[in-house]
Amino acid sequence: FKHMSPDVMAQIGTLWDPGHNYIVPFMWGTHGVTYNRELVLETYPEAPIGSMDMVFDPRHMKELARCGVSFLDSPTDIIPMAMAYLGLDPNSTNKADYQKAEGMLKKIRPYIKTFDNFAWQRMSQREFCVAVTWGPDGLQAMSQAEEANTGVVLDFFLPPAPMFWVDSWVIPGDAKNVENAHLFMNYMMRPEVASNDSNYSWYATANKTAIPMIDEAITSSPAVYPTAAQIGTMWTTAVIPPKIERVRTRTWTNFKAAN
Asked: For 72, 169, 209, 238, which has the most beta carbons within 10 A of its beta carbon?
């Protein structure tokens, strides 16, 4: 664990693994909005760029629908983001909170062109002007647009209090090859391995020792490595009770069907 980022370890310790006995972090990140500034302003000059009103307020979504808006196809990401936007607990166990989120989401549903985790790949062709994406995918979208040399310039912004997620390694309780599992995780935690993973995927590594070995285009991007101030405002999702998980699933189904 000596190579692990204190910020990442602190987030893991908040709700998931307080004693740091089970989880070894791998990659981490957050969510935000990737957008084509020129196309957005050409379509809707009053667009509130930099505010989550841009994607959660139906007044603005109605206008931006003319140039194409995409959302992640992920209830465990979008619903907590929507609840945070409403000032509700993203980890709420109160059914009424999910009903409030559903009511808000249904109002913007007619203006969402698609639910697609890879819509950012088509932003350089101007198929979408706005996409809710994972942070690192925002950076990839910006780079892809630059390489396409079509004149499309993309940008990215985070919510004021972003959600933190982490991909991690754990060993199942009934694992038969525990020694090999530890060897694998030790290998993945080598700084030279972690840096290679990050340079390949463009996702942030939890390995602080590896950062100097990562391409500066990745480490300097707030889409991948948010500022210390932004990290300080991040929150994590919790494992919610099965009964509430069913409520969240129903909320998502009703949202997507409310076109």
From this structure: 72
Per-residue pLDDT reduced to its tens digit, 129-166: 999 999 999 999 999 999 888 889 999 999 998 999 99
Domain locations in the chain as residue ranges: 6-28+164-233, 30-163
Q: Do domains 6-28+164-233 and 30-163 have the same CATH topology?
A: yes
pLDDT at position 201, please? 93
| Alpha carbons 30 and 158: distance in angstroms, whole number | 8
3-state secondary structure of 175: coil
Strand 163-169 with 235-236, pairing: parallel
Based on its alpha-carbon atoms, the radius of gyration of the chain, rounded to whole angstroms, reads: 19
The superfamily CATH assigns to domain 6-28+164-233 is: Periplasmic binding protein-like II (3.40.190.10)
CATH homologous superfamily of 30-163 equals: Periplasmic binding protein-like II (3.40.190.10)
Provide the edge-to-edge strand list for the sheet that holds 154-157: 114-115, 69-71, 130-134, 31-36, 154-157
User: Comparing C-alpha atoms, which of 145, 136, 142, 138 is closest to residue 197?
Assistant: 136
CB 32 within 8 A of CB 161: no
pTM of the model: 0.90
Q: Which tokens go with 75?
A: 């209830």
- Residues 178 and 227: their CA atoms lie apart, in Å, by 37
